[in-house]
Amino acid sequence: MAESNAPTLLAQLEGTPDPRSRRGRSFEWRVLLAIISAALVSGYTTPRSIAHWALEHAQALVAQLQPAKRRLPSASTLYRVLRKVNRQQLETQVAAHNQAVDADDGVTGGVRAVNGALLRGQAVDGKAVRGANTHGHALHLVSLVRHESGCVLGQCAVAAKSNEITAVPRLLAGRDLRGTVTTMDALLTQQALARQILAQQGHYLMVVKENQPELDAHIALLFNVPPVPAQPGEVLTHTYTARNHGRLETRTLEASTALTDYLDWPGTAQVMRRTCQRVMLHTGVVERKTTYGITSLGRDLAEAEQLEAFWRGHWTIENQDHYVRDETLGEDRGQTHTGSAPQALAALRNAVISLLRYRGWTNIAATLRHYGASVHRALQLVGWPAT
């Protein structure tokens, strides 16, 4: 496993203000953070299970953490900390940690551009925390996730009575987007967001559907009724084939520059048609789907092959982040719903996923079992000094 040159998770989390009153601090803030984060990397992902893990490993934890009075915090203390912590400040510290490990990596999610530059893909999308929503406490989060690794570079909550369209500009605000390609699904295909990404010196790849009817119609017409004669090199094609999960998948991306000067869309350089065909190998059933897109990447940076790689990389946010948070770390099954706790735990899950991916782990479930077998290993991973 790779050794990190970035600050440890625990050191970064200590930058989050302690929410307890000074008179009620029986335990050091870093001890509480160490217990919570070490339990999470061991696969214990709810306040109740974190407290149970601490109780089961009390002797080892006391020996290594050396808490005052040689005892551990109660379940109510741990839950109270998660409920009261400033969620925005915690998100900031988690994002700083994740960005540091991502920068230390430097290449994951990268696609080599036509001109030789390395462009790194990052996906933006939203996710409802269903466990909290079950209790009537609606929580919807938007995240910025590195292609391939699933490292969560930032996350923020969607404001009440609002939506992802207004939250994503806040998520991206102030970021240096040089050398990046931000990908998104059709809901976020908005002119204002395209302008913002360009103003921050980044590039975008946006899926186009019926919520942008005029844009969708123009792109569909171009590919379905192409002009005659077409200009040489105007349309480039790349086909990608993969066989997995009992399916043979063929994805064909066509990229055209024909609408560059025609469309009233910020930064238009190419439009795309992506056709996906899936053949179920056991049944022979064939499924086909056609989707359109638009990008600010010109031919000096991306031809059809590069564009297909970025489009394919967008699904990192579902496969490497959302799926792991829900299925492996139990986010949707959790019933935590009061105060800051749901968002705080979501942020900490992001930190755990990003740290484990950075350390080279690919099977997160197996990784949790590895660290769950040793309190010493778990504490070392999050940054508690070895004794």
Order of helices and strands: HHHHHHEEHEEHEHEHEEEEHHHHH
Number of strands: 10
The amount of helix comes to 40-55%
The whole-angstrom Rg is 23 Å
Distance between the termini: 21 Å
- Estimate the global geometry from the Cα principal axes: elongated
The biggest beta sheet is recorded as: 10 strands, mixed
Q: For the residues shown, what is the average pLDDT?
A: 90
What is the overall number of helices? 15
The percent range for strand residues is: 15-25%
Uncertain runs: 132-136
Kindly name the structural category.
Answer: alpha+beta
Oligomer: single chain
Characteristic key phrases:
15 helices, alpha+beta, single chain, elongated, ten-stranded mixed sheet, 41% helix, 387 residues
Structure description:
- Strands 1, 2, 3, 4, 5, 6, 7, 8, 9 and 10 form a ten-stranded mixed beta sheet that branches.
- α2 (29-41) packs across α14 (364-372) and α6 packs parallel to α13.
- Helices cover 41% and strands 20% of the residues.
- Among the domains are: 9-89 and 338-382, no CATH class; 202-308, no CATH class.
- The chain has 15 helices and ten strands.
- It starts with 8 loop residues before the first helix and ends in a 5-residue tail after the last helix.
- It has helices at 9-13, 29-41, 47-56, 58-65, 75-84, 87-105, 130-133, 164-172, 191-199, 213-224, 304-313, 316-328, 341-358, 364-372, 375-382; strands at 110-112, 118-128, 140-146, 152-157, 180-184, 203-208, 235-244, 247-256, 270-280, 286-295.
- By secondary structure, the protein is an alpha+beta fold.
